[in-house]
Amino acid sequence: MPAPLDPVIAQIIPLLPLRDPATMTPQSARDSLRALAAARAAVPPPPVDTVQDIKVKGGAGPLDARAYRVGAGPAPTVVFFHGGGWVAGDLETHDRQARNLAIETGAVVVSVDYRRPPETRFPGAFEDAFAAVGDVLGRVAEFGGDARRLGVAGDSAGGNLAAAA
Q: Are 152 and 131 in contact (CB under 8 A)?
């Protein structure tokens, strides 16, 4: 007999964006993932010392990004790429993950909002990831980071981008 489903998880499953892939569109997936993130609005996000909206270089021009920092002084830096099935995620849907990464590692986390399909075809997201890592490395002191301690990380599709970059 399978174990019963955790009640909290049972409430989250209907909110997941991939419920009906036969009728899903890129915009409906984005809307659903955003709604899932918004459903937690009543719960304050994990506190970090600073959050700064910035721009980083992408493969075809500037990209939106967000720098999260805990503490002061030079810190390791992590360039983070959101998940979302390549299509649905963005800075807002993965804000809590980036905050938690900064808190748990003590690193400066630069979360990058790469271009997504279908508007941008492969290899656009990879070109953005590669360019963003180079840009963050070149400007690491601007964010309070230490150039000798730079890493990449990502969630789901973002993990693929991190590994490739």
A: no
CB 108 within 8 A of CB 149: no
Would 116 be classed as within a structural domain?
A: yes
For residue 84, give the nearest of 158, 10, 137 by alpha carbon. 158
Instruction: Work out how many domains the chain is built from and give that number.
Output: 1
61 occurs within a structural domain:
yes
Instruction: Assign residue 81 the CATH number of its domain.
Output: 3.40.50.1820
Domain range spanning residue 71? 50-164
Buried b (16+ CB within 10 A) or exposed e, 110-137: bbbbbbbeeebeeebbebbbbbbbebbe
- How many CB atoms sit inside 10 A of residue 12's CB? 12
pLDDT in tens, 37-84: 888 878 889 999 999 999 999 999 999 999 999 988 889 999 999 998
